[in-house]
Amino acid sequence: MAGHNIHGTGLVLGTIGLLLRGPSGAGKSLLALALLDDAAAGRGHAMLVADDRIDLAIDSGRLVMRTPARIAGLIELRGRGIVSRPFVPQAGLDLVVDLVDTLERMPEPGAFSTALDGITIARAPVPRVGVAGLEHQLLLVREAARAVAAAPGRVKKTA
Predict the structure, then answer these.
(1) Distance CA 10, CA 20 (A)
(2) Neighbouring residues of 99: CB distance < 8 A, sequence distance ≥ 6
(3) Letter string b/e over residues 8-35, b meaning 16 or more CB atoms within 10 A of that residue's CB
(4) What's this model's pTM, rounded to 2 decimal places?
(5) 65 pLDDT more than 60
(6) Residue 146 and residue 123: Cα distance in Å, rounded?
(7) CA distance 58 to 20
(8) pLDDT tens track for 106-158
(9) Domains of the chain, first to last
């Protein structure tokens, strides 16, 4: 179960573990904070795994994100600095959200999957900050999470 550390921001959105990827300044932390604040306002459930760096490993054939201890519960809010949010130390990875430079009106079907460490995983191309507004980004992430949750064969958690 050896892993490696990658650049990105990890969250759990409902039952979906997602990884936000993109270059510095693309808006990963801002989008993560908006998703966390939506949940805090009663619109679903979300928890931070880690901001900026994620430990990624394979466990029983599944990708798993883990929080590096030194940044647990910390996330950057540009213009304010480092702020604290509740976090979970580990989560499965179900969806990669890539912050991209363009807004494709009708993306090709191949745009909705990627491979990490040899494992195919759902992907959502989402325009970075400045290309699309935050509300549009939130809609794209929520829709991608819904599609992953509804995928055939996905094990659903029950209470």
Answers:
(1) 6
(2) 20, 21, 22, 23, 26, 27, 28, 31, 126, 127, 128, 129
(3) bbbbbbbbbbbbbbbeeebbbbbbbbbb
(4) 0.89
(5) yes
(6) 12
(7) 18
(8) 888 888 999 999 999 999 999 998 899 899 999 999 999 999 999 876 554 43
(9) 3-149 (3.40.50.300)
Count Cβ atoms below 10 Å from residue 66 Cβ, excluding itself: 19
Here the tokens at position 93 are 């990875």
- CA separation for the pair 126, 97 (Å, rounded): 7
Q: What is the pLDDT of residue 154?
A: 59
HSE on the CB side for 52, CA within 13 Å?
14
As a whole number, the mean pLDDT across the chain is 89
53 with 6: CB under 8 angstroms?
Answer: yes
Q: Is the pLDDT of residue 105 over 90?
A: no
Tokens representing 47 are 């928890």
Beta partners for 13? 16, 46
Q: Which tens digit of pLDDT belongs to each residue from 22-47?
A: 998 899 999 999 999 987 777 778 99
C-alpha distances in angstroms, 6 versus 30, 57, 79, 139, 157? 18, 10, 24, 26, 28
